[in-house]
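Suppose a classmate hands you a notebook page containing two proteins, each written out with its sequence and a corresponding row of structure tokens. How would you begin to make sense of it? This section walks through that situation. The first entry is reproduced here exactly as it would appear on such a page.
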Amino acid sequence: MTSAISVKNLNKVYDSGFQALNNINLDIQRGEIIALLGPNGAGKTTLISVICGIVNPSSGQILVDGDDIQTEYRQTRSKIGLVPQELTTDAFETVWNTVNFSRGLFGKASNPVLIEQILKDLSLWDKKDNMIMTLSGGMKRRVLIAKALSHEPEILFLDEPTAGVDVELRKDMWIVINKLRQSGVTIILTTHYIEEAEEIADRIGVINKGEIVLVEGKDELMHKLGKKQVILQLRQDIPAIPEPLQHYDLSLSDDGSELTYTFDTEGEHLGITALMDDLSDNNIRFKDINTKKSSLEEIFVQLVRESE
């Protein structure tokens, strides 16, 4: 089955000598949502810009639905919608006109019913006759999303789409994204709101210093790299972790009242059972027990640190 996007050995080196992308290989399947996470300057926006044909690659190949973006530019670009980070819009145009014009840029026939539905989905319908310059930052962000959807793309890129916008817009946008997913649109997003990626993405890609650190199914990533913790509230404070327990990954709170045991999800039962036996043998009793599992944010921070 042909991937929606296939990136092979992609490099981008600017005239200054800075290598923004280093041997990127990435396959994105039709109909999936993939979240690209990475610190500022990691190469996320450059990667999106190259795939969308805004920035020329130094080497490598990018196929969109099997077609090369450089030799079949018009065909591949028509399949892609892009919501950029920057709020670049036509200040003196109305919302309706700028969204309608964006559709025409891709050679699509006028479709007022579709444009109306997009504006309504993004809570822009009551602003359709307003000039862009009169809108708030959040409303301008909605217009960018509407423009990206106007030509009915099969692939949608969202580059930090909710950065600096209100909670209401985020909720509206995720509703629209879920509708698009159900209709088969492939969605690639970058975000600093990792909890959003955790909630909506099928796969997570981590990029740092222009290199793909990892691409993994969200559930597999959480299982493979997630840590669990057992927090024990002790009946009596202890001054230090006893010698027979020091081979466990244990930490003691400053006041000696709490022990935290960190372990991998693999083989967890054996580790906990042995720990409980050893605690009893060393006369350490607890009055309460709680568990905690790593969040996607903690896994992301760990992966970026390891790639430094």
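The notebook's second entry, a different protein, reads as follows.
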Amino acid sequence: MRKEDVFARYSRQIFIEEIGLEGQKKIQAAKVLVIGAGGLGSPVIQYLAAAGVGTLGIADFDEVELHNLNRQVIHHERTVGTSKVKSAVQFVKNLNHQVECIEIEEKINQTNAEYLLRQYDMIIDGSDNFSTRYLVNDTCVKLGKTLVYGSIFGFLGQVAVFNHQGSKNLRDLFPEPPFGEDIPDCDRLGVLGALPGIIGSMMAMQALKLITDLPVNVNQLTLVDTLEWRFQTLDF
């Protein structure tokens, strides 16, 4: 992209004093891995691609299903039955062809986690199960990678930045994952589609602030209750 094209496309974020051209250059040089192309991953992928993140890794092993469409807004009816990663990459290409997408059509596990995460500057976890969340957290701690974390359930959401420049991580907040009946299940109990849009957008905002070296709160969990419309932060 020529310099004038960069300005024409990204002028509304370049106009922000704290971003400017230097901040935009940082965004375009960033390499971010998004784990999960579902409810949380959809708005994260959408807004990072729109902002011009240079390299976007997208990891998911699932296919698009009809019931996904109430919240996973980067997918559509024509992609039902196809790979979520391929659907997500096509969405990004249609939105911003300058973004380099890395397709990772596999589950993050003990064997591949360190290899996959090592290649990126920052990790954003939009997974929907505790085993993956704790594996990703532990791998980020081992590799010294900043992790943007989010979770949703019903009307409730959580957002945090873990392991940033020596800050605390998921196990400092929740030392062990829940088991059995303690695990909330969106497939069984549901989620209102706009909630992951809110939480995912907050995750994308934190990621962009981190990329452009703007201050973010660490050692803090943001709780969002969209039913009572309450937002609070807990220090840990």
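A careful reader of the second entry would note: The first strand starts at residue 31 and ends at 35.
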